[in-house]
Structure to design on (317 residues):
């Protein structure tokens, strides 16, 4: 009995998947109502001007019965060619409003997920009292509605965002950027800097345990393993600096520990300096250490200065 119940439910599941795919990938098999709304509007205008229905039907390729139904307002949307019961939930102006809101949230670094958009669509339909097939139990628009919405608006796509801290977002705005370039421009105008005297520093986090590359292994095995130094790595901050002339300064590596060991720099580029912090991030003390390292390699002085910029502020040693 259990086996028969399982077979029935498995068949129902396969039938559901088949119907779901059929609706999504449906291809029209007839040319019914293929004349379009533009031709239908022109035909109705010709009827208003006194042209006979049969002649108008032959001219525009629209059945005379269809023309009379639209002329006599016996359809829900006179002048609009709609095949079947399909009707767009949101008018074009509401859809454009949704698109503008999605793009505005993206520019504000609070991009909406697919669940957010489906919830927003349901709330909008309820607020504007529009007829919709959305689930009132889940209070969400359907997945197929979202798929069709993204298809109608190709300027939108599903993307993987890059994590950005709030401090970076707060510092990256028009007043702060204008202030940075104002200070930077003043310093460039005071001195005739050459390319070798203009430096930019940046930092990046790297892990000491890298993700193994794909390997060729036996087919059908559920789990394939490869040896690494550990299963979970820790982030190490690397501070790099380069001039506009193409010169490099040996990097600085900041390890997440309390005390620095010289053994950690084994195999690093010549001249690399190391430091330690509880979380492996830079702080004011470590930046002063980096600045001394920078001055040591660039040999800049008050008489022969160089300019060094990083993260929205400028310093001149």
């Amino acid at each position: 009995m259990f086996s028969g119940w399982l077979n029935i439910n498995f068949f129902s599941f396969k039938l559901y998947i088949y119907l779901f795919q059929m609706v999504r990938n449906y291809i029209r098999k007839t040319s019914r109502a293929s004349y379009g709304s533009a031709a239908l509007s022109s035909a109705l205008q010709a009827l208003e001007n006194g042209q006979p229905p049969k002649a108008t039907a032959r001219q525009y390729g629209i059945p005379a019965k269809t023309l009379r139904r639209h002329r006599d307002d016996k359809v829900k949307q006179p002048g609009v060619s709609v095949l079947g019961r399909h009707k767009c939930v949101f008018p074009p102006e509401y859809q454009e409003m949704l698109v503008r809101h999605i793009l505005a949230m993206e520019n504000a670094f609070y991009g909406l997920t697919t669940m957010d958009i489906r919830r927003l669509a349901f709330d909008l339909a309820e607020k504007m009292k529009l007829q919709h097939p959305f689930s009132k139990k889940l209070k969400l628009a359907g997945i197929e509605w979202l798929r069709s919405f993204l298809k109608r608006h190709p300027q939108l796509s599903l993307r993987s965002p890059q994590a950005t801290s709030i401090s970076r977002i707060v510092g990256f705005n028009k007043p702060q950027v204008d202030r940075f370039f104002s200070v930077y421009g003043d310093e460039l105008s005071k001195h005739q800097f050459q390319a070798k005297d203009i430096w930019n520093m940046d930092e990046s986090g790297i892990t000491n345990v890298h993700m193994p590359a794909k390997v060729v292994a036996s087919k059908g095995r559920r789990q394939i393993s490869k040896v690494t130094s550990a299963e979970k790595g820790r982030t190490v901050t690397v501070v790099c600096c380069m001039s506009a002339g193409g010169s490099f300064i040996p990097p600085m590596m900041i390890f997440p520990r309390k005390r620095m060991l010289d053994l950690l720099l084994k195999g690093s580029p010549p001249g690399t300096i190391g430091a330690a912090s509880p979380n492996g991030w830079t702080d004011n003390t470590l930046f002063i250490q980096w600045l001394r390292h920078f001055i040591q390699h660039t040999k800049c002085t008050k008489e022969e200065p160089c300019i060094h910029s990083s993260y929205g502020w400028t310093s001149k040693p």
About this structure: The chain has three domains: 33-85, 92-152, 180-207+233-315. The two ends are 84 Å apart (CA to CA). The longest helix spans residues 2-24.
